[in-house]
Protein: Ferredoxin
Organism: Heyndrickxia oleronia
Amino acid sequence: MAFVITSPCEAEKAGECVTVCPVDCIEKGPDQYFINPDLCIDCGACVSVCPVDAIFEEYDLTDEQQPYLEKAEKFFGIL
Ligand code: SF4
């Protein structure tokens, strides 16, 4: 399981999540931040600091948000 950063990040890219992540698994991509799903320990710390509520647990993703998990996996070369 992992948390996933979704569409609101694309317009915001605030980056607060990076500073609170205890395992440093969030990286800045070209158009948004990404959580490495292989390293995320599911602590949820990033969720509350995101100013645009862009971060969701993998299993809570809507159909529209689902592609963002794949986008993160591609970014980290997991797919
Ligand atoms: Fe990092 Fe925790 Fe957020 Fe996963 S849930 S990205 S480990 S802060």
In short: The beta strands are 3-5, 26-28, 33-35, 55-57. Residues 3, 20-21, 23, 25-26, 35, 40-46 surround iron/sulfur cluster (CB under 6 Å). The mean pLDDT is 96. The helical segments are 8-12, 16-20, 45-49, 67-75.
